[in-house]
Amino acid sequence: MEAIMRNLFLTMAKSQTANRLAKRYGLRFGAQRFVAGESIQHAVETTKRLNEQGLKVTLDHLGESVYTRDEAAQAAADCIRTLDAISEAEQNMYLSIKLTQLGLDIDEGLCLDHVKKIVSRAAESGYFVRIDMEDYAHNEATFRLFHKLHADFPNQIGLAIQACLHKSKQDIAELGKKGVNVRLVKGAYKESPEVAFPDKADVDKQFIDLLEMHLTSGGFTAIATHDETVITHIKQFVTEQDIPKERYEFQMLYGIRTQLQLDLVKEGYPVRVYVPFGTDWYAYFMRRLAERPANVNFVLRSMFKK
């Protein structure tokens, strides 16, 4: 049943009609738990509150799969405005971007130009930019653009890698040699068994293997998980390997396992919260529902709450 629900929500995430309706009617039915708000001001306020609790922040101006040059240019301008607003507020954050939001499906050169403008502005203010890894269909193009950008901005840009993909062990080995700042996630997209592990146990095992590989490579590792078994294992591993806290951090999603985030901060571990905002929240929300049945239960309760 859980697999059926996951596939259903991942399929729904791709619906352009549902996405348009979601934009029209705004955050509804529990989405506000996982999305900080629709405006940059909401993002700034949330970042400030989390920083005051000892939590670092990644901001994601939601959006993906745009199909016109004007939309891509608007998305790039929104990212730059977000950087400017956070810089003015002097908050501890970095920016997460999706290349399909910036024109990857239109023209790679156009997308590259947009990302260069964003990373250049981030560098001026001392901020960091992470490229999210999207579905497998965009994997190779994402790597092509990332390597071009990393050559020009080695300290200002990083990449997310999905543990579910068969190719990720080779990718992590190569990125480790270059000292790339990597965010490791299990993966939240529906993929073919030809390119991704279909069984959760295999994904979990590769996730641990990749974390250990990158943690010992010398590069920075962002450990993106809410899985306490993984967190406990990594705590022990970094202690045994004497890996300093400047070389890793735990990362979790806004609205999920909030108390665990605060507990880790109290224990002295670096923790960063991935905070999405904006009107284009539908696909992100569907993937959060696909990840955990408990998220669905929360939404159902919110729908019938008086």
TrEMBL record:
Signal peptide: none annotated. Pathway: Amino-acid degradation; L-proline degradation into L-glutamate; L-glutamate from L-proline: step 1/2. The keyword Flavoprotein applies. The keyword Flavoprotein applies. SUPFAM superfamilies: FAD-linked oxidoreductase (SSF51730). It is an enzyme of class 1 (oxidoreductase). Its EC number is 1.5.5.2. It comes from the Bacteria. One of its GO terms (molecular function) is oxidoreductase activity. Its cofactor is FAD. Residues 44-299 form the Proline dehydrogenase domain. Keywords: FAD, Flavoprotein, Nucleotide-binding, Oxidoreductase, Proline metabolism. This is proline dehydrogenase. The lineage of its organism: Bacteria, Bacillati, Bacillota, Bacilli, Bacillales. It catalyses: L-proline + a quinone = (S)-1-pyrroline-5-carboxylate + a quinol + H(+).
